[in-house]
DNA sequence: CCAGAGCATATACCGGGTATACATGTCCTA
DNA sequence: TAGGACATGTATACCCGGTATATGCTCTGG
């Protein structure tokens, strides 16, 4: 639901049309999560259906202008005041992959971990390179108002978020490696982590 | 695509029926990501459509047994050997929320951050509590094979992944707070972060 | 005997996300 | 100046992930 609420928050700031909403969104999140235009319009349709926004005619250039409603303003307020994530974290593909790699025989978990670490470290370098670019491109000192409304700061914070997540991923991979080594050395769970055949038939019932 | 590949990996280990696949999946990921049964069957249908698995009659109890194909085995192999995430990381709702909170006037970013930190720390405590339970429930020393096939180890690693992610989130929130404080003190971007009205009209064109 | 619970399969439905169609306007250039 | 490339702008078709629900079945306890 993040796109829906993000669009609502932008509409709260100012009435806008679809294409403009995409531009504003991407100005704040940069190249991280390019927003497909189609999704903007479908989301706007749903927002109108749910009474959170409505198309309010056209401006001078023929753009369909959307406005937020009072219900929409309430929705934005609750979105900002309600923390996210405590219920069900989104499925983590890497965690699922490793959980399967550990339990399914015939998979070399060590290689999976090593390759993933390399890829994540490469991504980390990309992020730091992007951060350098962003720092260079930013206005060194915009006295009163540079017109960006802090969009470059937001984009920088998003980048930091990716960096922190990638670093945590690498730490977790190291942690998995050492735990697997310990398990292989000790008595418990010395199977898997190497290709050993003949899995016992163990159904659910 | 993580569910699709996870089911394929399970089918590579052994032919199974739908309900059994869900049980095997949840045994490895615990209560983290409960898998809806319906998704299993729709995914199986798609797997059959794409030639990665096929329904191979019934077993004694009348269960529809699915088998993996050679193409499916290839798919699993490439899944395990190809790292994940370098292309487009999944949308992070929290990052989007904060990016919007920073750029949209009238939002108290400090409160958003503080509330989120509290919620994340609560989740962190839940995770460590679950880890204690898992450690207590695990077989202390299963000499040869406890029949779980390392499912408890996988579930424990998944939990660790959640812990690492939550810790990184908290670190990022602290980082955001200090950056915002610095921005508020310095010259650049002293707007936002406080409710100041009268946003200048700045459209995309 | 039957009410409820767990097992098992299947389908309807919605939201997220991508690709694509289509139309307009602008700008560059052969 | 005609035309091609390109950005702007809106809209729709389509697939996949995810949830809820319908429908049987078996087993068990009161």
Question: Can you describe this structure?
Answer:
2 copies of one chain form a homodimer. Chain A folds into 2 domains: 2-81, Arc Repressor Mutant, subunit A (Orthogonal Bundle); 93-185. In chain A, a hairpin with a 5-residue loop joins strand 1 (53-58) and strand 2. Chain A contains 7 helices and 2 strands, in the order H-H-H-E-E-H-H-H-H. In chain A, helix 6 (109-137) packs antiparallel against helix 7 (151-185). The first copy, chain A, has 205 residues and is mainly alpha-helical. The first copy, chain A, has a two-stranded antiparallel ribbon. Chain A has helices at 2-13, 18-29, 37-49, 70-81, 93-103, 109-137, 151-185, and strands spanning 53-58, 64-68. Chain A is elongated, with a radius of gyration of 24 Å. The model of chain A is unreliable at 141-145 and 188-205 (pLDDT under 50). Chains A and B meet through helix 1, helix 2, helix 4, helix 5 and helix 6 of A and helix 1, helix 2, helix 4, helix 5 and helix 6 of B. Chain B binds a DNA duplex (30 and 30 nucleotides) through residues 1, 3-4, 17-20, 35-43, 45-46, 61-64, 91, 204-205. Chains A, B: InterPro entries: Tscrpt_reg_PadR_C, Tscrpt_reg_PadR_N, WH-like_DNA-bd_sf, WH_DNA-bd_sf. Chains A, B: This is PadR family transcriptional regulator. Chains A, B: Residues 7-77 form the Transcription regulator PadR N-terminal domain. Chains A, B: Residues 91-180 form the Transcription regulator PadR C-terminal domain. Chains A, B: It comes from Nocardioides albidus.
């Amino acid at each position: 639901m993040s796109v829906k609420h993000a669009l609502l928050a932008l509409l709260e700031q100012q009435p806008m049309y679809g294409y403009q909403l995409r531009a504003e969104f991407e100005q704040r999140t940069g190249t991280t999560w390019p927003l497909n235009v189609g999704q903007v319009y479908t989301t706007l349709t749903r927002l109108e259906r749910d009474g959170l926004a409505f198309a309010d005619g056209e401006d001078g250039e023929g753009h369909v202008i959307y406005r937020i409603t009072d219900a929409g303003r309430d929705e934005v307020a609750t979105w900002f005041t309600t923390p996210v994530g405590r219920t069900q974290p989104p499925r983590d593909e890497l965690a699922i992959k490793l959980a399967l790699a550990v339990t399914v025989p015939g998979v070399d978990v060590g290689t999976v971990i090593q390759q993933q670490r390399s890829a994540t470290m490469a991504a980390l370098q990309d992020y730091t390179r992007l951060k350098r670019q962003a720092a260079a491109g930013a206005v060194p000192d915009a006295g009163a108002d540079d017109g960006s409304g802090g969009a470059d700061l937001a984009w920088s914070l998003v980048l930091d978020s990716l960096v922190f997540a990638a670093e945590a991923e690498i730490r977790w991979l190291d942690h998995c490696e050492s735990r697997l080594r310990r398990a292989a050395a000790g008595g418990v769970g010395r199977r898997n982590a190497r290709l050993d055949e003949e899995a016992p038939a163990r159904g659910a019932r």
